[in-house]
Every structure is written in C-alpha cells, then in structure tokens.
Amino acid sequence: MMNLRENPFFLTDEDIKWVNETLSSMTTEEKVGQLFCLHGMDKDEKKLKKIIEKFKPGGFMFRPDKGKAIQEVHRFLQEQSAIPLLLAANLEAGGNGIALDGTAVANPMQTAATGNTEIAYKLGEIAAKEGSAVGCNWSFAPVVDIDLNFRNPITNIRTFGSDVSTIIKMSKAYVQALQENGLAASIKHFPGDGVDERDHHLVTSVNSLSVEEWDRTYGIIFKELIEAGTKTIMPGHIMLPHYSRKLRPDIKDEEIMPATLSKELLQNLLREQLQFNGVIVSDSTMMAGFAMAKNREEAVPLSIEAGCDVFLFNRNIQEDFEFMMKGIENGILTMERIEEAATRVLALKASLGLHKKEVDTLIPREEELKVLGCQEHKEWASIAADESITLVKDTKQLLPISADQYRRVLLIPVENINSQLKAEGFYSQSYNESFADKLRKNGFEVDLFNPNQNFGASFMTPTYTIKEQYDLVIYLANLPTVSVKPTLRLQWSPMLSGDLPWFIQEVPTIFISLANPYHLFDIPRVPVMINCYHANENVVDYLYMKLMGESEFKGKSPVDPFCGCWDTGM
Q1: CB 35 within 8 A of CB 321
Q2: In the structure, what pLDDT confidence band is assigned to residue 463 with cuts at 50, 70 and 90?
Q3: CA distances from 456 to 14, 100, 146, 326, 469 (A)
Q4: Are 311 and 300 in contact (CB under 8 A)?
Q5: What pLDDT sits at residue 419?
Q6: Measuring CA to CA, how many Å separate 143 from each of 93, 175, 310?
Q7: From CA 241, how far away is CA 257, in angstroms rounded?
Q8: Residues of the chain with CATH 3.40.50.1700
Q9: CB neighbour list of residue 546: distance below 8 Å, 6 or more residues apart
Q10: Confidence class of residue 457 from pLDDT cuts 50, 70 and 90?
C-alpha cells in the first residue's frame, strides 16, 4: 500500500497536496509521459523541445560530456518542462559518470578494497555534489549486486565484492551521503546480478539461487537498503526462477520473466515481502535481456503493469508511447497502475524538493561547475588509490623492484580495446606509455611490446634469448567491464599467442591488473599478481610507488582473486 508520508518519501501535507493536484490536472497521456525516462542521445534544442511538448516525459539521462554542456542541456530541459524533470546519471564511481571533467573517485570494488566506509561515504558525497552541479537529481547507483561468479563480465569491479556485509556497509554509506546531498539513489539490479556468467545487456540472465539462498544474501542486502531509505530501486532483466515458482506455484517455465516484466517479483517480493514503498525504475529497455523476453508491443505496457513505475530509455519514443497507450486499450495496462506509478514519480520529485523551486533555480549557476574535479575531490581519489591497491601474491619475493636489480624491462600491455568503442568512451584511457615513462625516468630501460609487429617472432624466441634481453617482464592489463563484451578473460594475440607468459619460469614476471581482479584464472603460476580495480592516474601513480617500495600495499581483496582454484596460489 503506497504511503507518501513514510519511507522513503516522507512528504508533508503540502507536498502531498502538490502531488495530488498535479496528478488530477493531467490527462492520461500526460500521466503516461511521466513514466518515461528518455535517453538523451541528442542535445539539439529544437528536437528536445518537440519531444517535451509532445510526450511530456518524466525524466532524461545523458551520457557523460563536458560539465558545461551537460548543465546547459539540463537547464534547457527544465525550462521547457511544465513539471520538473528527473535528470539521471550513472554516478557509480563519482562525478565522472555525468561530467568528463568530474572526479573519478573510486569504483565500488576499489572502494571495498580499502575497507574504509568513509571513502564510500565520500564517493556518494562527491557524486552528489558534482552531479547536482550540472543539474542531476538522480543517481543510478550504487550497484548492490554480489560478485559470486568470477566469469560474469558486467558485475566485476562495478560491485562492492562478494561479501554481503561489506556490500551493505559500503552501499549504505554511499546512499546516505548521496541522499543527504540532494540526489535520489537507485540501488541495482534487483533481484541481483552476479550469479549467472551471462550479461543481461546481451541476454536475459538468471539468478539461480534457491529461495533460502536468496533470502540470506541478496534479500538481506535489499532489505537493509530499503530500511535505510533508498528512494528508488532498479530491477534488471534477470530471472529469479525459484522465487517465481514459490510465489506462483503453477507458473510454467516459459512464463518466468525477468524482474522488469515479473509481477510476482516486483509486487509480491519487492513491494509486499520487502516492503519497498519507493520508485521502481526499469533497467534500460534497449538491452537484449528485455528485448528477448517478450515482443516489445506487449513488453512496454507489461513492464508498468508488472510493477515498474519508470520505463527507462526507448528504441523509438513515438513507438513506445503508442505501445503504452495501446496497452491501456487492450487491457494489458490498467489505469490503476498508471495512477499509482505516476503518483510515485511525482512523489519522488516532491521528496527532492523539485516542486518548490523556481524554474530558473532547478539548475545551478555556471560558476557552480568549479566543484567538478576540484582539489578536495581529487585528494579523496588519491586516498582511495593508495588504500585499495592489493598485492595478491609474490611467491618469489620479487618486490620491491629497482633499476639496479631489474634494469631491462619488457612491458606487455593487455587491453583488447576496440578502437571504435574506445572512441565512444566505453573504455578508460591507456596508461601503457605513462607507466613506461615512470620506469624510464627512474633508470629502467623499457621495451613496450607491440603484438601487431612480428607477433610470430616472440613465439619462436629461444629461451636463452629472452633471458639475455630482459631482467623483468611486467604485464599491464586494463580490461574493465563493458556492456558489449561477453567475457573479460585474457585474450592473447592471434594464432601463435606470442604475448602470453610462457617464460614465467625463465624471467621474473609481474602481472598487474588495472581492472578485472580475476586474471589469475588464466595465468595461475605467475609469481606476482597485483590488483588495482580502477584505471586512472592516481592508481597508476600509487602503483608505481608500491612497486618501488615507496608505499606499502594496503588493499584487501573484496573477492576471491584465486577464483576458487588450488593452482592459482602457486
């Protein structure tokens, strides 16, 4: 039963009056419009004006751009909308989730590796301050998934790890800080990602835990965060078959739907059992996990009828709006659900105080952009880098290194970076040259391996040759999560794989991962493994200092970097 006076809205009588009066003044089409959060693919003002006039959406989300550009488009949108808009961003690691000049504080796994909840709090605080500076009022974060399956390519470093208590502590701190600073949090991805090794961006995935297993893991996490006041929850395109069968004993396998389309998961489990009173926002409906579950004409209205209050993104807004209206006509979507969902959307806006602001104050002044990437925020990013880098193993006591002992170094990058994806901002920048320069400035002679040049020669190199040429080999891997790759496993150069570490018994070898913490699965006998969790300048700076013995390794792994294998510790 919806209660706007209680957690997480806590509305006053005046707030509720605004919600009710606003709702009663709206047509059915306008109420439906409030349920759409559109993907800001284009900043053209004429196009945006037409969209707002025609569909009157409840919100927008843009991908990261320069802070000034984001602030300007947000200002224009709020000026055009009769009802204040929800303006969202993926602020999982800091203000860089919306502003390219914002601060990359720490991603969740890096945060967890510090063991320091103050850093999690500061992450939420900085995300809120930098997000609000450009006009955001909604963060699609934190990720509260459990990284149970090391093969999962999309949870990984986006999570706080595999320990339930750590996830609860860190995510609570983030949510508290974020919402204290005026943004709504959205914990994701209900009913929980990280069990399946498949990515729900690419396929409808499965959380295969039993009811009892789910209750004592994901269930506890969601319960704790709901009680802590998180305003919104994002379900993923993830099925929870054991719970679906418990809640609907007669359900057939083909009727089991991902949470975004599952009435039993959203209304029976999330609303009734876990007592969530806030807003439910679907994950992106452009994902294959949504598209593969049902035909879109039926899925669009069914998502709202199943329990989502906000429909996130569109392949085509005109088509999806028509599907929603047609769903009302053919009985898939009831007016009762539309009224309830629109009420919650308006209540969320009221809980953020958006209804009390004049249009020209919904977006901060340009001078507020100075908070983006400010020195104070950079210092917290530096602290996170220092406290998170983890020495997983050093079986041959190779550390610390020095130019006196290991003067000739072969540096082998492992990136698997698609140039188009890199250009579109899906990957962090490469740090190979900057890391090599740090080594060179301190007396090391560094060769940077290029797999595109004579890759066959490296495979045919005699053992004595590589021993004569190099004193040390360092691998620098940067394989972050990206929603178009079904695996983060190491992939060597084609055919002869001359860049794989075939020489670890011949030449001292160090493997460094700037992202994925599970690479030992593919290189179990490498003598030194270092996990950094987040590729950025601060991390690379502290990584170098720790290699040289100028700073101690302080991080503790929030997951099992040995991947449950006996041989990875050798």
Answers
A1: no
A2: confident
A3: 73, 39, 41, 60, 17
A4: yes
A5: 43
A6: 10, 11, 18
A7: 8
A8: 389-569
A9: 389, 391, 400, 530, 552, 553
A10: low
Strands 205-206 and 238-239 come out as parallel
Q: Which tokens is 62 given?
A: 């843009």
Average pLDDT over residues 257-284: 99
pLDDT band at 459 (very low <50, low <70, confident <90, very high): low
Return d(Cα 337, Cα 304) in angstroms, integer: 7
Q: Which amino acid is at 204?
A: T
Q: Which amino acid is at 509?
A: T
Architecture of domain 389-569: 3-Layer(aba) Sandwich (3.40)
Q: Is the pTM of this model over 0.90?
A: yes
CA-closest candidate to residue 153, choices 214, 228, 103, 203:
203
Cβ neighbourhood burial of 329 (10 Å; 0-12, 13-18, 19+): exposed
φ, ψ of residue 208 to 5 degrees: the values are: -90, 10
Element (H, E) at 70: helix 67-80
As annotated, the active-site residues are 283
Tens-digit pLDDT profile for residues 487-502 = 999 988 766 677 889 9
CA dist., res. 437 & res. 377, Å (int): 26
Exposed e or buried b for every residue in 84-101, given b needs 16+ CB within 10 A? bbbbbbbbbbbbbbbbbb
Rounded CA-CA distance 551/176 in Å is 32
Mean pLDDT computed over 185-195: 99
Alpha carbon distance 155, 188 (integer Å) = 11
Topology of the domain covering 46-371? TIM Barrel (3.20.20)
Q: Where in the chain is the domain with CATH 3.20.20.300?
A: 46-371
- Rounded to whole angstroms, how far apart are CA atoms 125 and 284? 25
Report in angstroms the alpha-carbon separations of 21 from 175, 343, 504.
30, 11, 71
Residue written as tokens 């707002």? 52
The first and second tokens of residue 556, run together, are: 């503790």
What is the full DSSP assignment across 16-61?
A: HHHHHHHHHT--HHHHHHHTEEEEE----HHHHHHHHHHH--SEEE
The answer to whether the CB of 387 falls within 8 A of the CB of 425 is no
pLDDT for 424 equals 43
Sign of CA dihedral 529, 531, 537, 541: negative
HSE-CB of 370 using CA atoms within 13 angstroms: 3
